[in-house]
Amino acid sequence: MTILGAGVPARDSEPARSVAPVMPIAPGRFAGQSVIEELLRQHGDRPPRSRLARTLGASPLDANELSWLRAAQAEMIVGDILGRLPEGYSVYHSLPIRNTAFWVDHLVVGPGGIFSINSKTHWDRDLTGSLRSIPIGEHAMPYLRDARFESAQITALLAAAMPVAAVVQPVIVLVNPHKILLAGKPNAVTVIDSPRLRRWLVGRPQVLSAEQQAALTALVDDPATWRATGQPLAPAHLHARFSALEQQVAAARTRRTTFTVLAAAAAATVLALAASPLIVTAVEYLAAR
Known about the structure:
three-stranded mixed sheet, alpha/beta, five-stranded mixed sheet
């Protein structure tokens, strides 16, 4: 059993945002964009909360939408980490893989090779896993299989500029888990926690020359390499709508917590009032003996 390390609490600060020009193709996309677009698409079909629901702190998102929100938060955290890589690394986000329905969360081209990175979030949990899957609750998640598939697809897309001995290396980044426990090392997939990601990437031995890196980044930058996407909303608009949802979810959680505390206090008060006559009677009885 391999223990890969403990994480730290998720950061509250908002990750750095991309200032890349708006483009209807992948290379100009920001971290988490595909997930945010899907979240907003799903949420747009939901009726607004009633005044009573808002007062009682009902979440504006259902369970499935909340999972998309957390996934976007994870990608933005990892995107922020990748944005702090030193000079000599090229980083891309939310790349829709041609001929598939998949997108890769992050793609990094650097001296140590080319890496397809998937961000996963399960904060404050111990995560266990095998060579085939990583169980989350009662469900075995095919993260390892999906990571291998994505890396193979991207390797094929970049084969024209890829050195013969190089392939896209799949990486799964678990955002700030408490601990990662794996029963053996996964085949061909690196699983790592987010606090160690930057150091791990920078520490990879050099396998690409400057010329090879330049050829690869030119191919990644070519819109024809990736599946075309619909005309996106402006990044600032997407961020604004996502931030508004985050604030609504946080406000609803605060309201629910407040009502829970008030309800507990009210129950304790009622219990105390109901018990007070019995306490007085007991004291009088003991005093009379």
